[in-house]
Structures are given as C-alpha cells and as structure tokens.
Amino acid sequence: MGKEKTGEEKLKDICYSCGIETVWQRYEKQEPHCGFGVLGLCCKNCNLGPCRIDPFGEGASAGTCGANADTISARNLARHAAAGSSCHSDHGREIAHTLYLCGAGKAKSYQVKDEEKLRRIATEYGIKIEGRSKEDIAADLGKAMGAEFGNQHEAPLFFKRAPLKQQKIWEKLNIMPTGVDRAVVETMSRTNMGVDTDYKNILLGAMKVGLADGWGGSMIATEASDILFGSPRALRAKVNLGVIKDDEVNIIIHGHVPLLSDVIVTASQDDEMLKLAKSKGAKGITVAGICCTANEILVRRGVPVAGNFLQQELAISTGAIEAMVVDLQCIMPGLTTVASCFHTKLFSTHSKAKFPGMEHIEFSEEKALEVAKEIVTRAIDNYKNRDKAKVNIPKETMDLIAGFTAENIFYYLGGKYRATYRPLNDAIISGRLRGVAGVVGCDNPKLQSGGSHIQMVKELIKHDVLVVQTGCSALACAKEGLLVPEAAKQYAGKGLQEICEVVGIPPVLHMGSCVDNSRILIACANMVAEGGIGTGTDELPIAGAAPEWMSEKAIAIGWYFVASGALVVFGTPLPVTGSKNVLKYVTEDVEKITGGKWAFESDPIKAAHIMIKHIDSKRAALKLKPVGSETSGSKKEEAEIVASGKKG
Ligand code: NFS
C-alpha cells in the first residue's frame, strides 16, 4: 500500500479531476521552456529585432545592431533587477505615504503603533522630536522617507547604516545610488538600444539598482511598517491550509502591501461583523494569509497563514473560502479560473493591479476601514453560497514562531539586561555556531514546489548554521515544523542545539516578508559593528540562498546581497548562461570587487554545502576556532552563559 496522500495532494487531484488547471499543469504545458529565454539570448529592446543569438555559434553572433551575447544577457538581467527593485520600492513608498497621511490626520484607520521606533528613526533622519506629538513627527518622517525616492543628490539615509567598508566600496565603484526611483530610471535608460553596451558596466548598474532596493526602498518599507503597524515580536501562530475553518466565514488576504489587509483583520474582529456572520449561520470569521501580506500580518498580529505562493489556487479549491482579497504582487492570474468552479468571490483592491474576472473594490488610505468592512460584509453574504459537497479542507497545520527582527534578536540572544549582538558574535567566534545563512524567496514548480527550502535548511542547521528566513521560504519550512524551538533537538547540530535550548528560540528564525530582507542587512551590519568577526559584511561567515526563486524581486534581492559582500546561491541560474563572460562575471569576477558572488545549484543539499564551504572559508580567513571544538556536554554550562548574554 502506498503512502497516504497529503491534504494538498488530494486538492491537486480534485482540481485535476474537475478539469481545473493549476500552476503545475500550466507549468508542464510550458515545457520545454524557450531556450533563448533560459540562456538570456533574446533581445526585444528595439524594433530592429526581436533578435536572438545562436548559442551554438553557428548562426547569428550578434543582434541587428551588433549587440552580442554579453551585452544582451547583461541588459536583460539589469532590467529584471530594476523591475524587482521597483516593486519593493513602490511598496515602501506607499507605506511612507500612509505614515505621512496618518500623521497629518488624513488616514483615520491608522495609528502610530510603535512610538519608540518612530522617535528613533525620526532622530536618525534629523527630525526634531522633543516636545512634539507622535502625529507631527510621523507626518514629517513620512514625508522625508517619501522624498528618498526622488532624491537627485544623496544616497538614501539608511545607506549610512552599512559598514563603512561597504560604503567606500560602493562609492569607489560608483554604484552608490541616489534616489531609489532614479536608480530604476537609470537602469532602464542605460539598457536602451545603443546606450550602455559594456557588460561589466551594465552589471554594475544592476548592483546599483539592487542596492537602491535593499538599503533604500525595502528598508523604508520595513521601518515605516514597524512604526505604523507595530514592530514584530516573537509569537506563536499556525500555518498551512488546515487553518481554514469549515464552520466559519473564511477570508484570504493575499499580496504584499499590508495597508488594507491589516484593516481587514481589524474589521473581521468587529462585534457588528461577528454578529452578522453568526446571523448567517457561521461560528465566526477567519482571516488567513497567503504570500507576503500573510507574513506582514503574521509577524505583527499572529494571524494564521494559509500558505505560500504555490498554495494560492489550492486555497480556493478547498471550497471553503468566501472571499480572497488581493492587493498586489505574486497574484496568479490563474486564480479566476479556479474561483469560477467554486463560490469564492475574488476582490482586487489596488488601482495598480486589476484582474479580468475579479470584482474591483478600490482601496484608499483615507477610506481603509470602510472598504475593509464592505469586503468582510460581502464575504459574510457569500457564506450561504458555500456548497458543502465541495468542501475539502486539508487537516494539516503546524505551529511556528515568527516575528524576529534585527532589533529583537538582541534581546532573545543577548538577554533582557544585556541587549547586544555580543553573544551571537561570541558563539560564532568560539565555533559553537558555524555562521548565519539567509534562506529566502519563492517556491517554484520548476524545482520542488517548496521542498528545496526544507532540505537546504535542515542541512544547514545540522551543520550549526543559524538560519534566518523571510517570504515563502519561511512558510515552506514552517509547514515542515522547522520554526519551533523543538526543531533544534531534532535537526540542529550540537552547538546550535545548545544555544536554542537555553534561549528558547527555534534554529530557524522567521524575519518577515521579502521587503524584510532588509532586516537581514541590518543584522549583518550590527554583527560587524559588534566586532570580532571582520570589518565589513563581506568578511562575515554568512551566506544567502533562494533555492526556488521565481520573481524579478529575487534578482534585486540577490544583487543587493552580492553587492553587500555575500555569497548568494540560486536554485536555477540567472538567465545569463548564454554568455560565458557574464556568467563568469556574476559567479567569479564580481567577488574581487564586492566580496560577494552568485552560485547556482539545483540540488538543495549540494547548495547547502556550497554555503557551508563558503562560511568555513570566511571563518578560516578570520582565524576563528574550528566549529564544534568547544561544544560538548562539559562545555554546556559555558554555552548557556554565552547564549544568555551574561559573559563579559
Ligand atoms: Ni518574495 Fe513575497 Fe513569495 Fe516570492 Fe512572492 S510572496 S515578496 S516574491 S513568491 S517569496
């Protein structure tokens, strides 16, 4: 007898038997993928083409204008980075704008939830805080953050948070961006027909636009969200499709910018709404998230997560979703096909993201609660249309701890009374911890639909690498039970296990949504500032990976980590393998100028070992003790002291 199918597999079967195409069938129909696209050898930037280069060297070696494989693949890659960067940055801009509106009294559905952080960041910006109300400060800070996008002269303020060594490298390479928008415009302009054709120079541009995302747009998104919605704290919640309830009105919030979803959660807890739901025969209202909107609301409010990117269609096929509300990013147009077979109402809400087949209820910051209540009411009304015969909710759910930040890691690792990165650095120096790895990004049917994250992360923690995660990668590992303290005992190496046990943290720390990769940058800068493990982020025993990347946003993220000195491993190569020169540049040459580089490996275990080897080489360069040399039963007591931050 074969293994019993999981709830998710059963849902896929249901879709299949009903003739509903999901991402997996559509993917199969695309195979084999266009070879020119995979290699990065097609160019459609002007009407001399579209052109393509023959990878076998028999046909055209240049486009009509004379652009060769190096130029074409580098230009395509830089444009991907610009698109990804613009997505995160547009998100940051919206949050900054709402912070301004909130302070100016024009968006009553929002309040400053973290006043301490507001005052701290305002001070960083040079905004006067003494004797001023939080609203006045918020209005000024929102404006100042918004101005970062169009700044023509200076780099966004948060670039000052990077280690001096990195700042100098970026200045020397002329890749320190000014305004975030300007970096995107510059990339689009330099990759036009007949502008920049030197692949090395184009790739420097890709780094610049990536940096504008990481230390600019994304960091603004993270910091402004913390101020507006509250800074995350470690909390326990639930993940996977089993969080959907068969006797409640279920609303899925999906997308990235949490401005509306946060208010939908508030509306769903309103007495009037609950009463209405009960009057229709439901026991209550469940709001659950998909993708990074889910992560945003999870880390601040503990709202359950229905799933990651690839589960969005499956959520609808449970037959128990009254409404799915989307904002923008990572929303599959295929949702409307699945929803047409069930009673689920799909609502688009953002002026920038409409979908044929979805009803559009436009969100605005000024009317947020009104819009949220309308959507919740419509979902409740739709409860009566649920067809019980079509309901198939998987049983699987898992606990997870989420809500770690660059600031609160201090407290968890350092102890309440000694909030520093010292214990973390000391653990690395003594070899109890090998290093830190960021495993982030999407899930992709091209690889293991989430499985690669799990295998990679298990391999890393087994080798005493503390893992930090964001995005759908965090959700994939959460479903496997890796984001609970108990996972340390089962999966982690001895050194990591001892630390997790004493501090009570999981071996895998959930740091939020994809814009919150900026938290990882800040944590790295803090590790450098704490001292003892190098003078720049390029010297740290760290590595990053996106084992199942799919979005252009992942390319922007990858570039800002590479430009910041990190090794970044992707599960499938960047679309540049048609150019030997560009491939060599991104995987080797770039290391000589930034200290970071890319590697590509689809086997997650092998990829984990590329990261481990890299971490070990950084340890060797720092002359740190061998990993595990100080970890054993007799040393446990000392580990406890280090982990609790009591050691001087
Ligand atoms: Ni990141 Fe988050 Fe998920 Fe990928 Fe999409 S939701 S922003 S892009 S798929 S991790």
Give the arrangement of secondary structure elements:
Blueprint: H1 7-17, H2 23-30, H3 35-39, E1 42-43, E2 51-52, H4 69-103, H5 115-124, H6 134-147, H7 164-172, H8 180-190, H9 199-229, E3 235-239, E4 249-254, H10 259-268, H11 271-279, E5 285-290, H12 291-301, E6 305-307, H13 312-316, E7 323-326, H14 335-339, E8 345-348, E9 359-360, H15 368-382, E10 398-402, H16 408-414, H17 422-430, E11 435-439, H18 451-462, E12 465-469, H19 471-479, H20 486-491, H21 494-503, E13 508-510, H22 517-530, E14 542-546, H23 552-563, E15 567-570, H24 580-594, E16 597-600, H25 604-621, H26 636-644
3D architecture notes:
With 648 residues, this protein is an alpha/beta fold. The C terminus is likely disordered. It binds FE(4)-NI(1)-S(5) cluster (NFS). The site of FE(4)-NI(1)-S(5) cluster (NFS) has 13 residues, from helix 12 and helix 19.
